[in-house]
């Protein structure tokens, strides 16, 4: 509570380095134990200088949400209950909360109510889980039983992605035995959206089992692939379509923004995060698969002592023993309600527009992207000045934005992802940036 109380005033970037913190907590493991209350007090006292103001309203780096109060308290309950939530037979309360959270989320996002929802650690593992399911399914459709015969002699799976996909897609492919040179890359436009005519041309050359990976919410620009155009092209060519919507999928929950995800529901699998736009604590992502039978085929485990109750968490994720990380998602959804989720997403977009307008009004600052959603990217006249501005802002302490490379130029990225951000936070950040931009 003390830490949360400091968020409005503390420098958002930490004052201590990793080395400082290693000294604070380090030394050899003491022989003797310590009273649990003292352990926690020692940790809390030492931690402060190395903590980042991530749960506050002016952390705009990467794509990182804050934590809604109900979700934070629910997360404490998850630890106190200590329910190993792999199977409904063992832990009915947490599995029920997760199952309902999954159904609510499918409903909010306009996805098929019968889809399987696996709560995993984040977007990376959600992409991995969905793509592992996809690989299994497309091989099965071409007559290859992956579970029985393995990958080594299997028909090559064509893995088609957009030029501006997230790095976690290639990493998921690597885990799945798909090499970098095997990934087929389709051209993207200036905002990072896959070009439909380029996909059409690419798929004419692809034979055999096929996975097409699309994106809802490009991490720099916030742009959305034109799903209504792309998914039918992929399906006409027999592909499994996966959508990485780590933060963008939530646009579908807003009547004002759901035009961005038009066509979304036709895909075969979707990955998203709850710890970004939904603002639950780390960690919580969701792997969603249209046909639960495909999830079961890829993930159901054996074991004479395991009891099956229909669709258990261990049927739809790579985990066996697992934390009930979907419970905070239930609390976040219940606390916001349908209208509250829409209002949250709308607010993030409005803050992004206000930030972009304010930045564009500063002499020497250029906003680089079309601000359609929650991402604002900007730069100064040169790469060096752009990088220096980011570093100066971290040192100044008001807010955090993080740097990136976009189309060969240095930029700063500002991601609106926190429920805690207010119009005043946007103003304070703009004032700080104004004071730091060279005249
Ligand atoms: C954040 C992000 C991921 C990875 O999600 P983690 O929660 O960090 O594992 C994947 N794709 C996109 C588009 C993202 O923004």
Secondary structure topology:
Blueprint: H1 2-5, H2 18-25, H3 36-47, H4 69-81, H5 92-109, E1 116-120, H6 123-141, H7 146-149, E2 158-162, H8 167-175, E3 183-186, H9 196-204, E4 210-215, H10 227-236, E5 240-244, E6 269-273, E7 285-289, H11 292-299, H12 327-360, E8 366-367, E9 375-379, H13 383-396, E10 402-406, E11 409-415, H14 423-436
Parallel strand pairs: 2-3, 2-4, 4-5, 5-6
Antiparallel strand pairs: 1-7, 6-7, 8-9, 9-11, 10-11
Bound molecules: pyridoxal-5'-phosphate.
Describe this structure in words.
- With 439 residues, the chain is α/β, with parallel strands linked by helices.
- Among the domains are: 10-51, no CATH class; 70-331, Aspartate Aminotransferase, domain 2 (3-Layer(aba) Sandwich).
- It has helices spanning 2-5, 18-25, 36-47, 69-81, 92-109, 123-141, 146-149, 167-175, 196-204, 227-236, 292-299, 327-360, 383-396, 423-436; strands at 116-120, 158-162, 183-186, 210-215, 240-244, 269-273, 285-289, 366-367, 375-379, 402-406, 409-415.
- The strands form two sheets. It has a seven-stranded mixed sheet, sandwiched between helices. It has a four-stranded antiparallel sheet with strand order 8-9-11-10.
- It is globular, with a radius of gyration of 23 Å.
- It starts with a helix and ends with a helix.
- The model has no long low-confidence stretch (mean pLDDT 96).
- It binds pyridoxal-5'-phosphate (PLP).
- Residues 63, 122-124, 166, 168, 217, 219, 244, 246-247, 273, 285 line the site of pyridoxal-5'-phosphate.
